[in-house]
Amino acid sequence: MGPILSFAAVLSVLTSLTSASVIQSRAVKASPIRIPMKQSIHGPAFNIKVGNPPQDIIVLDDWTWHSTWLYTPHCKGHYSIPDCVLPGQNFFDYIKSSTLKNASDADQTFLGTDYTPGAPFTVSFATDEMCLPNGKHPKGLCQKNVEVELSNLAFRFPTLQDIGAIIGLAPVLPGFNGTYYPAAYQFMQAGQLDHIVGWHMCGGLKNKNTCQGQDYLTIYGGTDT
Question: What's the predicted TM-score (pTM) here?
Fold first, then answer.
């Protein structure tokens, strides 16, 4: 599922990350991963790898989003790179991934996102391997069968976007199903990350050392203190 929480609502529940949904998840002792992020048109962005063979995808780090949304060459009811993807656009070509599986969850459509204001925003659900950047390992921190959203739009984006996906960090509340599970939450369920997420920006600091030379830093499975 995409954005259903306003940023204010997210802030109000961030302190409840030890709610029932988190408390019921098994405790883990995993090392956090520190991810430097650059500024995109929409906000902080970084690269992940999805599928097998892995494809490099530029993701927007979005605290108001849930499961990872991937821009694909599926639109207007069919698969076509020329029809659905502008030249130079970053996207996930699901046809090329040998590990992608359709999920049992039904397609979802909603109106009014920051990316497609006023237009129907439809997603299909699937699972695939995902690797988060990890400076300790060239391949990254990888997890199989991560549930993701695949774009299923009735149109092609009219302009190039400097991202090809959105990775969510919205809290998982009691009663939510897999369509609401951010990637970090699924990594936590598998014992690969702790439930804590840290984040800060370097724009107002004297230098960008704490962001490893980039504009932002997010820490999956830990804090920036």
Answer: 0.86
